[in-house]
Design goal:
Blueprint lengths: L3 H9 L1 H57 L1
Amino acid sequence: TVPLTNRSPAVDSSRTGKSTLRAASLRTIRTIGTFASKAKSSFNEHAGKLGKHAQEGLSDIAGISRVRRLA
């Protein structure tokens, strides 16, 4: 169990603690945001390449299904 004497300063400095916590959260959000944007750009490149392959594959599948429907 944690003694109450160790807990009370955190309660007393709840205001400053909140502001520092907010600053820290904003900082982490910002870093996550920059990381996410970098990851997104690289992901979009990969997705673009994959998308082309997928579209080609889907068109092939669609062509096969069309042929089956006609037959």
